[in-house]
């Protein structure tokens, strides 16, 4: 796999080495040894999958405390803009974000460490989104920040009139008002 550093420490774009021929293709989507050598030691314990239609924005979410999660995310069908916002208290890139297009075609993955808000917008007719987590979900440990908080300056690449969000995400707090990850 090819590991690309981003402008925020500990967030990586991962591109697999794809072997293809007339039959199709093959690639390793995760290799624990390579991951430990190039990124960090990690033990994933939960895999999640969602299906969403064009214009859906999911996020921004983060688990805190004993249930903080690192994630390895990718798209199985379709195309998204995936966003990770540094929410680590005292980080020099606190409030900055990485945005990367993930698609079934480019097969990129994004590694998001603990302490980051995460969200994505669907840019294709629909998408199937998959992510590995290194900790179990706990509703009481989840915090949310508004996807459209102007202080974050995220361009979700979907016209405002087409954006679909859950009631929970629409009523989330502003970045400056939510206690950061420690």
Low-pLDDT segments: none
Number of helices: 2
Average residue-wise pLDDT:
95
Question: Sheet with the most strands?
Answer: 6 strands, antiparallel
Q: Please give the radius of gyration in angstroms.
A: 16 Å
Query: In percent, how much strand structure appears in the residues?
Result: 35-45%
* SS content category: mainly beta
**What is the total tally of β strands?**
13
Quaternary structure type: single chain
Describe this structure in words.
- The chain has 182 residues and is mostly beta strands.
- It contains two helices and 13 strands, in the order E-E-E-E-H-E-E-E-E-E-E-E-E-E-H.
- A hairpin with a 2-residue loop joins strand 3 and strand 4 (24-26).
- The longest helix has 7 residues, at 32-38.
Provide tags for this entry.
182 residues; five-stranded antiparallel β-sheet; 13 strands; 2 helices; mainly beta; globular; six-stranded antiparallel β-sheet
What's the short version?
It contains 2 helices and 13 strands. It has 182 residues and is mainly beta. The strands form 3 sheets. Strands 1-2-10-7-12-5 form a 6-stranded antiparallel beta sheet, with no helix packed on it.
Secondary structure layout:
Elements: E1 2-5, E2 12-15, E3 19-21, E4 24-26, H1 32-38, E5 46-53, E6 57-63, E7 71-77, E8 79-86, E9 97-103, E10 109-112, E11 116-122, E12 126-133, E13 142-144, H2 167-170
Antiparallel strand pairs: 1-2, 2-10, 3-4, 5-12, 6-11, 6-13, 7-10, 7-12, 8-9, 8-11
């Amino acid at each position: 796999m090819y590991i690309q550093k981003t402008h925020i420490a500990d967030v990586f774009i991962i591109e697999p080495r794809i072997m293809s021929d007339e039959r199709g293709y093959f690639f390793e989507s995760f290799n624990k040894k390579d991951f430990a050598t190039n990124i960090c030691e990690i033990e994933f314990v939960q895999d999640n999958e969602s299906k969403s239609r064009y214009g859906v924005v999911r996020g921004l979410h983060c688990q805190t405390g004993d249930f903080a999660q690192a994630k390895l995310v990718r798209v199985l069908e379709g195309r998204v803009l995936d966003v990770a916002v540094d929410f680590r208290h005292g980080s020099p890139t606190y409030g900055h974000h990485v945005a990367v297009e993930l698609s079934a075609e480019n097969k990129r993955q994004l590694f998001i460490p603990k302490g980051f808000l995460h969200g994505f917008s669907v840019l294709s007719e629909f998408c199937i989104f998959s992510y590995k987590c290194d900790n179990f979900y706990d509703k009481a440990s989840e915090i949310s920040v508004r996807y459209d908080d102007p202080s974050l300056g995220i361009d979700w690449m979907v016209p405002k009139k087409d954006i679909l969000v859950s009631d929970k995400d629409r009523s989330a707090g502003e970045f400056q008002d939510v206690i950061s990850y420690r």
